[in-house]
Specification:
Structural class: alpha+beta
Distance between the termini: 28 Å
Number of strands: 5
């Protein structure tokens, strides 16, 4: 079993109200050299919190989390996985942001990401 860290990716369409929906999970496991984000926006729930929310822009911001974890070229591609995770989980006051970092133990980070995603994002 290895230690992993994760954060829920949240959408807070009206930051001043503090209402949010969970829209993704970011998981980092240093011993397994694993960093991955999975996101899925429930547009109906978003519109319930803010009827004029820009769904396309929120989806684009969520996809940036996924792309930042991938090995492809991007603004964070030269950073270590740990540095990427720290940058992605740094506090922000934007509509899409990561929540607090939590830790756990896993033998399979990809399977743990699936479990957390199902538990914390999907209804």
């Amino acid at each position: 079993m290895d230690v992993y860290e994760y954060a829920v990716i949240r959408v807070i369409p009206r930051v001043e109200r503090g209402e949010l929906i969970n829209a993704g999970v970011l998981l980092y496991c240093q011993p397994r050299d694993y960093l991955c984000a999975r996101a899925e926006l429930d547009a109906v729930r978003l519109r319930a919190l803010d009827p004029v929310a820009d769904v396309r822009a929120v989806r684009q911001a969520l996809s940036a989390y996924e792309l930042s974890c991938a090995d492809e070229q991007g603004p964070l591609s030269r950073e270590s996985l740990g540095s990427r995770f720290r940058w992605l989980t740094a506090p922000r006051s934007t509509i899409v942001q990561a929540g607090p970092v939590h830790a756990g133990l896993t033998g399979d980070p990809a399977q743990e990401l699936d479990r957390l995603f199902g538990k914390l994002v999907r209804l």
